[in-house]
From TrEMBL:
V-ATPase is a heteromultimeric enzyme made up of two complexes: the ATP-hydrolytic V1 complex and the proton translocation V0 complex. It comes from Triparma columacea. NCBIfam families: V_ATP_synt_G. It comes from the Eukaryota. Pfam families: V-ATPase_G (PF03179). This is V-type proton ATPase subunit G. Keywords: Hydrogen ion transport, Ion transport, Transport. GO terms for molecular function: ATP hydrolysis activity; proton-transporting ATPase activity, rotational mechanism. One of its GO terms (cellular component) is vacuolar proton-transporting V-type ATPase, V1 domain. Subunit of the V1 complex of vacuolar(H+)-ATPase (V-ATPase), a multisubunit enzyme composed of a peripheral complex (V1) that hydrolyzes ATP and a membrane integral complex (V0) that translocates protons. V-ATPase is responsible for acidifying and maintaining the pH of intracellular compartments and in some cell types, is targeted to the plasma membrane, where it is responsible for acidifying the extracellular environment. Belongs to the V-ATPase G subunit family.
């Protein structure tokens, strides 16, 4: 009976240990979920504060840099006009090059091609 009681004690201790481990796993999962929620709320508040800061700084910079914006627009227009002039000047030359290359097509057939066509026909 003594060995039977010892086995029973070991079984009870094993069940108790299993229960403690299961409770610890559940607790760990709960703590992990809580930490994720806390981190998500912290990230959301940080993101919203930085977004608000960015929006306000963008509005301030937009008003103060209107002269630089106008200067940039002027430079852009000047560059576009320069490119249009270059296009108009070079489009005729490019067309002439393309047409000359189209007219220079060699219509002779090489001997190797003729032989391979004759072999394929047989």
């Amino acid at each position: 009976m003594n060995s039977n009681a010892g086995i029973q004690e070991l079984m009870a201790a094993e069940q108790k240990a299993s229960q403690i481990v299961a409770e610890a796993r559940l607790g760990r999962g709960d703590r992990l979920k809580q930490a994720k929620e806390s981190a998500a709320s912290t990230i959301a508040s940080y993101r919203s504060s930085k977004e608000l800061e960015f929006q306000s700084s963008a509005l301030n910079l937009g008003d103060s840099n209107s002269t630089s914006s106008l200067l940039l627009q002027g430079q852009t227009k000047a560059d576009m006009e320069k490119m249009k002039k270059e296009y108009e000047g070079n489009s005729g030359k490019a067309l002439q090059v393309l047409l000359s290359k189209c007219c220079e097509v060699d219509l002779t057939v090489s001997k190797a091609r003729i032989r391979s066509a004759q072999k394929a026909a047989m």
